[in-house]
Amino acid sequence: SHRVAATSYLFLTVGSHKDRTFNQLLGINSNGKIAGYFGSGAKGHPNKGYTVRPPYSQSDFRSENFPGSKQTQVTGLNNHGVTVGFFSTQNKASLVDDNIGFWAHNHHFHPIVFPTTDNSTPAVDQLLGVNDHRRAVGFYVNAAGNNRAYRFNIKTGNFHRVRIHGATGVVATGINNKGSISGFFTDSGGNTHGFLLRRTGRLFILDAPGATMTLAFGVNKHGEVVGAWTSGSESHGFTWTRQGGFQTVDDPNGIGTTVINGIDKQGVLVGFYTNSNGNTKGMIAVPKN
């Protein structure tokens, strides 16, 4: 092993002013375009999806919501105008709402549901990432309440389960152009681990030092993984590479409340944090070195 210099970042807070209390940034492509949403999802405070381009002024936000939906989250995007996410027909006080995956191009929306009769009630199905070859990843929840990850080929309409030996539940969150998939799984002891699954089938299990839970949410073309690790009530963002291992990344306005969801090929990060007023803020972290 060898030491790799830690990356330092310039942090920017970005979000739609249609809701100054709750914004999350979930994905970023190579052109700096970002997928996200505002609204907490509480009754009367629905999720509303958007994309935003540099320089990230309010005029650069574009609404993206599944037609006729009550709620939409845009969770990922590629470099060719394809976005993915999920929507809901409900906005209940219990927060137990149905979820239906989708992909979209030029605001033409296509619902995606994994073909199974073993769905939870209400059904939960989400697409979370997509690459430039129109391969998307996501998960559904079965009737027993377990997460089942899958890969979806937008070109052919074919589905393939993503499995990890011994896992009781798996969520696939991101896929790069080489076909490597990021995500997290729960083992038989109830512990949650991040993972990177290469197209070859080689599996890297990701457990951040000192973490009680590690969640991987995205991967770029270089195989750099991002996510969040938790300890007690705190959440810390992280980056991981095979050469350098883990680096914790916290927005200075949200130390202990930071989550990183996406990373582009230049290493720019997107995610969110909770500030001292309890508001959820979209975050961009640009490498300085």
SSE series: EEEEEEEEEEEEEEEEEEEEEEEE
Q: pLDDT under 50 segments (min length 5)?
A: none
Number of strands: 24
Fraction of residues in β-strands = over 45%
SSE class: mainly beta
Give a quick set of tags describing it.
four-stranded antiparallel β-sheet; mainly beta; 289 residues
Describe it.
This protein has strands spanning 9-13, 23-28, 34-38, 48-52, 61-63, 71-77, 82-88, 100-105, 108-112, 125-130, 135-141, 147-153, 159-162, 169-175, 181-186, 192-197, 203-206, 213-219, 225-231, 234-241, 245-249, 259-263, 269-274, 280-287. The protein is mostly beta strands and 289 residues long. The strands form six sheets. The chain has a four-stranded antiparallel sheet, with no helix packed on it. A four-stranded antiparallel sheet has the order 2-3-4-5, with no helix packed on it. It has a four-stranded antiparallel sheet with strand order 6-7-8-9, with no helix packed on it. Strand 15 and strand 16 form a beta hairpin.
Strand-helix topology:
Elements: E1 9-13, E2 23-28, E3 34-38, E4 48-52, E5 61-63, E6 71-77, E7 82-88, E8 100-105, E9 108-112, E10 125-130, E11 135-141, E12 147-153, E13 159-162, E14 169-175, E15 181-186, E16 192-197, E17 203-206, E18 213-219, E19 225-231, E20 234-241, E21 245-249, E22 259-263, E23 269-274, E24 280-287
What would a concise description of this structure say?
By secondary structure, this protein is mainly β.
